[in-house]
Structures are given as C-alpha cells and as structure tokens.
Amino acid sequence: MSAQDQLVTWALERFGPRAVVTDRDAIDPWVHDWRGRYHGAAPAILQPDSTEAVSAMVARAAAADVALVPQGGNTSMVGGATPPADGSTLILSLRRMNRIRALSSDDNLVTAEAGVILQTLQETAAARKRRFPLDLGARGSATVGGLVSTNAGGTQVLRFGTMRGLVAGIEAVLPDGSVHDGLSPLKKDNRGYDLNQLLIGAEGTIGVVTAANLRLVPAIESRAVAWVGLDSPMAALDLLRRMEARSTMIESFEIIPGDSLSLVLKHIPDTRAPLASEHAWHVLIEVVRTDGRGQEPQAVLEESLADALETGLITDAALAQNEGQADDFWKLRHSLSEAERASGPAVQHDISVPVSAMPRFMLDAAAAAEAKFPGTRATAFGHLGDGNVHFHVRAAEGTDAERFYADEAEPISRFVNDLVTAADGSISAEHGIGQMKLEELERLGQPARLAALRAIKAAFDPHERFNPGKLVTLAPKPRRP
Amino acid sequence: MSAQDQLVTWALERFGPRAVVTDRDAIDPWVHDWRGRYHGAAPAILQPDSTEAVSAMVARAAAADVALVPQGGNTSMVGGATPPADGSTLILSLRRMNRIRALSSDDNLVTAEAGVILQTLQETAAARKRRFPLDLGARGSATVGGLVSTNAGGTQVLRFGTMRGLVAGIEAVLPDGSVHDGLSPLKKDNRGYDLNQLLIGAEGTIGVVTAANLRLVPAIESRAVAWVGLDSPMAALDLLRRMEARSTMIESFEIIPGDSLSLVLKHIPDTRAPLASEHAWHVLIEVVRTDGRGQEPQAVLEESLADALETGLITDAALAQNEGQADDFWKLRHSLSEAERASGPAVQHDISVPVSAMPRFMLDAAAAAEAKFPGTRATAFGHLGDGNVHFHVRAAEGTDAERFYADEAEPISRFVNDLVTAADGSISAEHGIGQMKLEELERLGQPARLAALRAIKAAFDPHERFNPGKLVTLAPKPRRP
C-alpha cells in the first residue's frame, strides 16, 4: 500500500468517513481550476473539521512523506490551489472548518475558521451592524483561509487595504504539524519576526491557515455613486487626489477606458452608457458614510465633481439618483471581463506600479504593446487608487483563439512583465504567483529576493510537502540570501 | 592580524578614514546602552555612507567570518544595539547614511536613509505641510533604521499604527551582502513572502535596513487636549469606544493611575493637578483636525465629555484652554517615568494584551503582583487604545535599590510575564526582545513560534553574524517548524 493510501486509511479510521473523500466524481471538481486552465489529479481529499485534526493529519503526512495541497474555495486565478497532474499530492480541504468562533461588535473583531465563505462572513458582520470591508467576484466561493493566504484585494481596498490590513490574528498549522496560535488581536507585539505577516500571502506553502481574527468596520449608512467622463488617466489621478484631500470616505475609485465600456455596451444585455457623450476614459466613484457624522456622500461627490467640471479636469459626470442606478453603474464595471471574453481572445495581466506612476504607465505600456504586437488592442482598467490595474491585450480581430493563446500569449506577457518590472512594479498585484507566474517570477525577481523566498521555503518546508510547485520551488538549488 | 583587523584595514583603504572609527574614546559612547545596563566592547565602528558601501562591507565581513552589530541612535530599551562584551563584533553604524532621498507631498511619501533622525524626519515633513505621525521620547537620537527594525510605537499609534503601518518600502542589505530593494511603494504586491514585513521588527538580525519609504499624513491644523478623572480602567475603555464611534480623529488616549500622578506632582517641579478633586484614574485625550473639514476638536471633546459626565461614566474633566495648558497636561504624562525613578527603585514591563482585556488585566495583575510581593506597589499607565501599558512594580518604601534589583527584579518580571502570557498577551509590546528579554521569550514562547524564529534566523544568517545574541539564538539546536 502506498504512503498516500496508508494515510487515507488512517484518516478514515481516526476521523471517520466525512473526513476523507475518495470518490472520483466527488474529487473531480477540485482538481481543476475554475477557469479550466490547470488540470490536476489527487487520489483523495482530506477534510478535517478542527485545528487538532489538521494538525494530526499534517503530522502524519510529514512522517509518511506525503505532500498536501491546501484548498479553500478553489477560486485561484493562478492555479494556486490545483494539485499537480501526477497525483503525487492529496488535497487538504479546509471547507469543513467553517465556524465563526467569535464575533465582538464592541471590539470590531471576528474569529472565523479557514473554511468560512466570504459572503457568509459579510452577512455575519452585517447581521451585527458591522461590515467586513473586502469584496471580490468570487465572494460566494472564496474562503477565509484562501483570502488570507493570497492576501486578497478587490474593489474596496482604497480605505481599508488588502487582507493584510484586515488580519488581526492567525492560527496555522506548520508543515511538521505544529500549531502556531497567533490569533490574539494584539495591536502592539514586538516579539521578533512577525509570523502572521509571513503567512499572509504565502499561498499555503509554509503553513496552512486554519483560522483568522479579522477586523470589522462600521456598516455603511449611505452611499453615493458617480460615473465620470474624462480625458486621461492623469486627470483621473488628479481627481482622486483632490477628493482624498476633501474626504476620507472614498470607498472605490475605478478607472475604465472608453474602449472597454463600448465592449460592455455591445456584448452585455441591459446595459446603457451613463453619459450621453463619448469619453476616452471613465471613472466610477463610490463615497460612503458610516458613522452618522461628516458630510453626506452625495454632497461630497456633488461638490468635488462641480469643482472638477469647472476647472476642466473632467468633461462630464452623472450621479446615480437611486440605488438601482448605482447598481447599474457597478454592473458596467463588473461586466468588463465578461464583455472582453465575448469579444475575442485576450491575455490578461494583474499588475501594479506606484500609484503616482500608474497613469503614465497605462498609456505608455498600452502604446508599447500595440506597437510591438501589431493588430492587438491593449487596455487597462481597475483600481487606480491602489496602483493596481488589470492590463489586457486583445488579439487582432479575427485571430484564431487557439493560435493566439498558443503563439502570442507568452511573448505578450513577457513583454508586459518586462515593462512592469522596469517601472519598479509587481507582476502580481492581487492574484499571487501560484503555478501560473512561477517562471516569470524566477525570470524577473531580484536575486536577493528570490534567494530569500527559497531560504524561507526551505526553513519551513525543506521537503516541499506544502503546496509543491506553487510560489517558489527549491530547485535551482537554494542559495542563502 | 585578526580577521577583524584585516576588515578594518581594508575598509580604511577602500572607503577612507571617515568610514572607520578606531579611537577608543570615540567608540565608547556606542558600546553602552543609554540606560547604562549593558556594557559591550568593539574594536571598531564601520560607518558606511551609501548602500553600496554597506553591501561591500557586509560581503567582506561575511567572507572573513566577522560578526556585525547594526546600530542607529543606540536608544534601545532592551540592549538591542549594544555589542557583546567580548569584543567579538564590530559595530556597523548607519548614522552617516542620513539623506532624505525623496519627498513627495502629492504621494505623501518620503524616502529616508537609515541614519535619518526621527526629529529631522518630523521637521522635514512639517516643512512640506505634512506630518510623520510617529513620536517617542528618543526623537532626537532614534533613527529610521532603528525605528523600522524595532517596529517602534509611541504615544500616537491610535490612528496610524506602529512603524509597520507607516512603512511603504524598505531597502536592506542581507547577511551575504546582497541588496534587497523593496523601496517601491506598491499598495498591492503579491509576489510571495513579504520580505519587507519580515524585516520590520527583526532588530537587524536577518538584514540591515539602509533606507525606508515612509508614509506621511496631513499636518495637524488644530488640536484639543483634555484631562479626565474617572473611577476605573473599564470606564476609560468605555469612554474611548464611545469617542471612537463619534470621531475618527482621536490621536492619543493615555491612561494614568492617580497614584502615578501623585508621584509626578511630588517629584517634578512646576507641575500641578489639572483637576481639583482626586481620582483613582485619569486619561489624557488628544483630538486633532487635519483637513479643514469635520468637527472642531474642541467640540468633539466638549460633547463627548459632557455626555460622559451626564451618564456618570467619568467624574470630572478639564479641557486645555490654550496650547500652554495642553503642553502642561502632556508634561504630566511624559514625566511619569522620571517621577517614578525619583521615588525609588522599580521594575518596568512593556506589555500588551488585547484591548478589550486590558482594563481588567491592569487591575488584576496589579493586585496579584502586590499580593505576591508584599510591600510593592504595582501601577500601569500608557496607551490603553493599543492594549499597551507600561506595567511598573515599585519596591517597598525604604528598600535598598541594589538589593531590590539583584534579588527581586527577576522574580517580579517572571511573575508579570507569566500573567501576560496567560492573558494571550505580549511580553514586549513596543521595545522588542534585544538581549534583555531573550531568556523570557525562550521560556514563554510557543514551541512552534520559537522554532519558526530560529528557522528564519538560520535561513538568513546561519552563522549568526548579524546582531548575534539578540532576539533569537540558534542554540538550542534549531528544530524545523
């Protein structure tokens, strides 16, 4: 009997049938990534329902030299939770660990287990008149463990930051099965290297997060949403800066090129342009009020946009007149990817550069990519205030999708990643490295940084038993940083 | 010639006489900690003035197996920058690296080299109508490199956090001399383990910080300061919570026991009680306004305190009527340690527990310590909103200081640290581990966490050449986490 089979048998005996899945059909949805790009295999899924069970399974797996792929909602954009195709790993699913252990609205803290789904977390907070201020498209599937392990972002990062800014504590099982209990929400704690910070964004490669203590913020009382037309990303950043000087309540500030809006209007039913005239660029702004004090969001937007119109910074603007209209504006933003998919093949990049450099980068990089790959159209949209845009290069019209992805995707991505790196930016702003960006990270990372990543991986998981083949690999042979 | 001497000779030849100090009198101030508790020795100080020079010196030291103690302003409270007494290390001073490389008031960012002194940084920001919102007593000596490496806190952490919340980027030289350039201020960057986060609070044991990109905030337009008398720490936390629900502009919220105030009034000239009546507890509150919008700080305080008086939450309150009075209130707070020193020997603890647990902890721990060590008086004061108080146990009246420190200090500290650990708190909230708390960290740390600290140290600095004997040591033999 293989070491994997022995482990599965042991887990069945010790934790019962709910703790182990061996049925092929039941396993199948979890060995492919949701975009259908990565196809793995695993003979079984381990499904512990407590930290103690995770600890016992991991210790047993370590002793038996069985590698594990930690998995939450399996919504990775970079193949980060898909096991290797050779069946050499078991999946360690955290989905059964889905309890809210504690919620204190006085302390604005919630302790959620790794398997709690984002939407459930949001609803739990809302029921207590609080808000968990992180949101993304996969909210119905993504889990707390995955959100922490990928330092997830989304459309609401402007005020409260990414997951790193929302984590007050972490509990994790390390590759030898030992438990790191860092849940205590200490605002000041200087007892050496911050293990919690190290686990955030580590993609399950040096520990598996079993629970997190997360910050809550006051619930939104009212919001105002505007759609703005303007000439350039520079004008958009200027507008953001002016609004930030006026109000601390800017919740979202999304930039959208005119070209991308056209695709939405063309391909997505029941959409219409918020502005009568055409514009090279648009921004979608949401301002909120949470504490019954300070200016009304509607007034903040009205005053800011009136000033901006008067000085010629923007060319047109529409304020949503009601919640329905606000949702319509947001639907345009959320439909960008779908519209693009409907219009033909594209290579997508999730990149960031310093905020101040982003407007120029959007224009220059798009021009450079289109010049280098004739016939393509390059567009950037997303979270301007975070310096994070999704930079997409669409195939020339009529290009065969298969041929495009086979021949052009890689050179285009390398070209874009070179530009980002030259601009002191990141080739992965939100999505992580997973297996998709591993080669590019190795190609473009600073030697000192790559050596440090390998040294950290080797320190925690020298036998590469935790999420092997993701984020960092120990070959080429680790050099000490 | 010893390896140290060879390195010194090489540095002199390559970088000139300003880069090396070998004069004993010039070295002397830097081998003792400022409180006179730790006395080390070093045959020379290396003083590079550029990142390249740091890199070259560290690489050469690594090749020659010479250990280095990175040093900034030498203001550690835990002997973190004092070399060992056997002269086995050279000091690597970053004080000559004192340039402000860049400051953008649009971006609210400043890139400062490691040797920039905190007060200089504050003044540089103020000259551009911005503020660097971290302050502490050693502002005239403490340097950026040390502040980052100790994740410094202070009295203004409530709104903007410790250094961790203010660092947008880090440049550091790793123990092999390679340079980590993580200065780019990316708000979203998910390229694996966050090396910047790992270096914050690492006390120079895995890398020496050479520069940091730091966040600035708007300058303060106006402030209001109040002194409040109340019955208990629980009432104080309740008041803080109510004020936080009302305003986001609470800059400081310091708790002071009546007993400690009495010592100040007794021992410090030109001080007087802000309130006519006596109170068991006091809080000092500062509310600020920065952006010309929102409520006047005075009004926030008046309304909050009027409500609190009416409901009986507090028993008395005085608002500073002018800046002079505000300074007088703050002088009382800043004189607490001096007054205590004047009144006799005391053992001090810099501890934190979760904010919600702090009021109860302050009372219970003080009672427990006084019961366990008859005749002592235990008091706690400090930053209630951060869960961080300075917990001092004073000797019984008439106790001989030397005897007290020799016989009682250690048992008292162990007792207090046991209580903190049992409350899921930290034995070092602000000051770090250095050499002072090394044994207690080893005694009280979770096994998984201690193993992780050692594994990280071994990954970056297996020969313990960076700040040896501080924060973590590799003996007992590292176990993999």
UniProtKB/TrEMBL annotation, chains A, B:
<feature type="domain" description="FAD-binding PCMH-type">
    <location>
        <begin position="38"/>
        <end position="219"/>
    </location>
</feature>
<comment type="similarity">
    <text>Belongs to the FAD-binding oxidoreductase/transferase type 4 family.</text>
</comment>
<dbReference type="InterPro" id="IPR006094">
    <property type="entry name" value="Oxid_FAD_bind_N"/>
</dbReference>
<dbReference type="InterPro" id="IPR051264">
    <property type="entry name" value="FAD-oxidored/transferase_4"/>
</dbReference>
<dbReference type="InterPro" id="IPR016171">
    <property type="entry name" value="Vanillyl_alc_oxidase_C-sub2"/>
</dbReference>
<dbReference type="InterPro" id="IPR016166">
    <property type="entry name" value="FAD-bd_PCMH"/>
</dbReference>
<protein>
    <submittedName>
        <fullName>FAD-binding oxidoreductase</fullName>
    </submittedName>
</protein>
<dbReference type="Pfam" id="PF02913">
    <property type="entry name" value="FAD-oxidase_C"/>
</dbReference>
<dbReference type="InterPro" id="IPR036318">
    <property type="entry name" value="FAD-bd_PCMH-like_sf"/>
</dbReference>
<keyword id="KW-0274">FAD</keyword>
<dbReference type="InterPro" id="IPR016169">
    <property type="entry name" value="FAD-bd_PCMH_sub2"/>
</dbReference>
<dbReference type="InterPro" id="IPR016164">
    <property type="entry name" value="FAD-linked_Oxase-like_C"/>
</dbReference>
<dbReference type="Pfam" id="PF01565">
    <property type="entry name" value="FAD_binding_4"/>
</dbReference>
<dbReference type="InterPro" id="IPR004113">
    <property type="entry name" value="FAD-bd_oxidored_4_C"/>
</dbReference>
<keyword id="KW-0285">Flavoprotein</keyword>
